[in-house]
Here is the input.
Amino acid sequence: VDNHDDPLPKYTPLQSASQIDVARLARVSQAAVSRTFTPGASVSDETRQKVLEAAYKLNYRPNAIARSLIRKSTRIIGVVVMRLTKPFYARIIREFTRGLQAHGYWTLLFDIADETEVNQTLPMALQYQVDGVVITSATLSSKLADEFARTGTPVVLFNRYASTGKTHVVRCDNYAGGRLVADAFLDAGHQRIAYIAGEEGSSTNQDRQRGLVEGLQARGAQLWQSAAGDYSYEAGYKAAAQLLQGPERPDAIFCADDLTAIGAMDAARYEFGLRIPEDLSVIGFDDIPMAAWSAFSLTTIRQPFDDMVKATIQVLMEAIEAPEAPPVNAVIPPSFITRRSARLSQE
Amino acid sequence: VDNHDDPLPKYTPLQSASQIDVARLARVSQAAVSRTFTPGASVSDETRQKVLEAAYKLNYRPNAIARSLIRKSTRIIGVVVMRLTKPFYARIIREFTRGLQAHGYWTLLFDIADETEVNQTLPMALQYQVDGVVITSATLSSKLADEFARTGTPVVLFNRYASTGKTHVVRCDNYAGGRLVADAFLDAGHQRIAYIAGEEGSSTNQDRQRGLVEGLQARGAQLWQSAAGDYSYEAGYKAAAQLLQGPERPDAIFCADDLTAIGAMDAARYEFGLRIPEDLSVIGFDDIPMAAWSAFSLTTIRQPFDDMVKATIQVLMEAIEAPEAPPVNAVIPPSFITRRSARLSQE
Here is the structure.
């Protein structure tokens, strides 16, 4: 029965009906009413529908805020992000939001422009007594993560290090990814292998570069040249233009992420008229959706981010249950995705 | 002074220090302590630093949850989204999160997979007594938006209609955008103008298509053909392949959004070997960052989403102050962004 066209009940700021009232009107048990309003609890669609209709008619609204004071759990997870506009992070936030919802937790989202803003934002975040925190940004200070841990709020760092070793970490093996690229370029006989960096201070960038450099050295080769970047299309474009303008050019470029690689490809093609991969091989990192677009067909190192998000949520749930357990350090291997932007065999 | 290397104070679940204790230790006024922990309140960096250090030493944490019960305001805004992985929505969520933070509000993020999930998610969202709700998804039922409004929680629909007219709306003039495209294609003498749709039921798609069709009719022309889509690269690719495979081909395609247009361009170039814009003109909608990439250089209709987000936050803030004020319907004009994917003058 659709009663929603009836005149709307007036808004009553005070709780006007009890769980028992709702159960009686819906002709279900009080436990069924409780389950309907408990995140993650099991209840049949039919029962839920009955409860919601009765709750609607009675204007019943359980008060999560008051309840959270009693059970000392808000069922809110704070998620801190610095680069939500990047395709990689947008997808990650979505997976976190959906994954946490499936566990009965909501996502309170904090977007930090830079590290100086962290000092203003996180103390206020703590006021909401979140049950846990995920920090997805690559360049957040470990000190602040430790401040959260000190208050007894579990923190999981997503794809970055805790230099102190006091917080949980879930990350991709970025170093191994760099080594995969070194081997692939050398196997194909590339001679002048360059690197376009991500943000200099980030552990992700440092590990990818170190993996490449040490992978080359392990086979008696050297990094030919490198250029600065910041994990953006624009920086990749600019860095590639700089690398390609000299009399001698790189024949292969490893880019710190896919956006950088796409920028580098566009510069190579549209500024220098180069063919990819005939004149220049490009490999990225992440495997964002755009990497698969025909315009790029980007060979890349895939971060297994679905697994990383699942692992992060699992670590967080376990830490909420057992706050005294020692920090987890989960490292998940990346994989090599072959498309058409890199020559991978000897000519 | 950096005291963070001292042994960490033990976690005390109960409030162990008062605002007065913190003020005394920091040698500031109690009002300064209060302002430091009030979102949006003004306090100098120096004072904030003193207060935070004292608060850290005393393990002082003001309890936002308890405070929200007293002042009946959680300073949390629920933001509902269906397509966070799309570049357009990722940027919008970021702007909302940052814009709301600047007003002293936090973002509780709800990701809805489809409309059936709404019934399970939103009743629980209401439990958190959010101060307001923004619904950014294009295809959420008006009925559910009305349910929020009924509880006295202001709701702003972002870029969609309220068929009931009971909720606030901030949107782009999608119809006007469609008309801009019709005029641009006709001015250049295009003969066979096609449309690749977004999600069929969405008002954004319907308005863009209607703008195109009526813009053509107003000048005695007709829509040559249209194909179904769903606001994705893959659908754009597939739809373009379908439009282009016949003996007679469109010479211009308007795509319901930029992702669709990029997919259509890739299909035209890499499946059919067509040159853009010599053989085919393509225009998109949104102006996502990828539209400016050299690979696409996509001519498009820009949604003024910074203005739209600002207007949405303003409407929300006013509605929180004056819940009884009549619904606002703000329509913001789009603009035509000329790049190189469409021939715009007579040959």
Notes: Chain A has a mean pLDDT of 84. The CA atoms of residues 82 and 114 of chain A lie 7 Å apart. Chain A touches chain B through 77 residues (CB under 8 Å). The first helix of chain A runs from residue 19 to 26.
